[in-house]
Amino acid sequence: MRGTVLIVEDDADTREMLGRFLELEGYEVETAANGKQALDRLEAGARARVIVLDLMMPIMDGWQFRREQIRREHIAGIPVIVVSAAGHDRISQIDADAYLSKPIDLDELLTCVSNHWSE
Question: What is the dihedral angle through the alpha carbons of 19, 97, 58, 35, rounded to the nearest 10 degrees?
Answer without folding.
Answer: 80
